Inverse folding.
């Protein structure tokens, strides 16, 4: 079990001061509760301190795979001057998003492992943050027929699942799929002309 480094007593006031000011300036209608995490609650995430959001604007935090929630968590850790090795010690959540996302990733890892076993071909996940990559690795740690490793760099870092005896593939930079403006339209593609 990981030793607790932070608690509400040691950082709660600093989190509250930063978030209170930031959310008021942004005009969000959100409430949050800062609490010490229960030790050993999850095998996949073991934070020291939890910040749980509620309120009318919570859906804004969870839009686009919780992009704003994760951004708030990141800037709070920057404000607190957490080192990269300490990022797992603080966790922001709303409407049990983290729990649901962990379960989704765990199931995705198992599905990928089954596909790799069946086809003998490596499976490459889309890029994800370090916490989500860790969930994939932990979900596959008991598998003997496959192995997982992180590949790439920066925001393009991915998990690749290999058959157990296969050598790693060379790193291939992640190229995001083209964005679409609307149904069937690619950004920048010529639009069909109508009658005038």
């Amino acid at each position: 079990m990981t030793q607790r480094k932070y608690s509400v007593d040691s950082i709660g006031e600093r989190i509250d001061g930063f978030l209170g000011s930031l959310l008021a300036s942004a005009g969000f209608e959100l409430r949050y509760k800062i609490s010490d995490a229960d030790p050993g609650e999850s095998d996949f995430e073991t934070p020291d301190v939890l910040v749980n959001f509620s309120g009318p604007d919570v859906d804004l935090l969870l839009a686009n795979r919780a992009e704003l929630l994760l951004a708030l968590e990141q800037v709070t850790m920057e404000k607190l001057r957490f080192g990269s090795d300490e990022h797992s010690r603080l966790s922001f959540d709303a409407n049990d998003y983290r729990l649901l996302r962990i379960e989704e990733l765990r199931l995705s890892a198992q599905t990928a492992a089954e596909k790799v076993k069946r086809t003998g071909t490596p499976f490459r996940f889309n890029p994800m943050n370090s916490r989500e990559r860790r969930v994939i690795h932990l979900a596959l740690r008991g598998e003997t027929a496959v192995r997982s490793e992180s590949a790439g760099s920066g925001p393009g870092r991915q998990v690749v699942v290999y058959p157990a005896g296969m050598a790693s593939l060379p790193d291939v930079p992640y190229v995001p799929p083209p964005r679409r403006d609307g149904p069937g339209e690619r950004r920048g593609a010529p639009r069909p002309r109508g009658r005038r």
